[in-house]
Amino acid sequence: MRGRPGALPGAALPVLTALLAGVVIDLTWPTRGAIFCEGLPQLAALSACAAALLVLSFRALAAASGPDARRLAAGSAILAGLAFFLSAHFIVQYRRPCAAVQQQLHASPSPSSKSQ
Hints:
single chain
């Protein structure tokens, strides 16, 4: 396998980006019926991964030699941008409600302390 040091093989970047976007979309899907507060740390990590893949996509776009490589890199950049936006938007939108629920859980007395 030849190429620039640190460069991903041709099809690896679009595949990784599509997998990441699929996971982010699954975690942020609005029909779950409840706020998934436990998923905020995972989404933060996925957001960082999406940002890294976005940078790699732009590097691949700049280094692309043919139209097919440009299309793959542009598609990867769009998917990585979508994954980054969705995860960051979800985190910003639900950070305060989740923090409020967590404060209420920590402030309420436990059932075992009431009986004593």
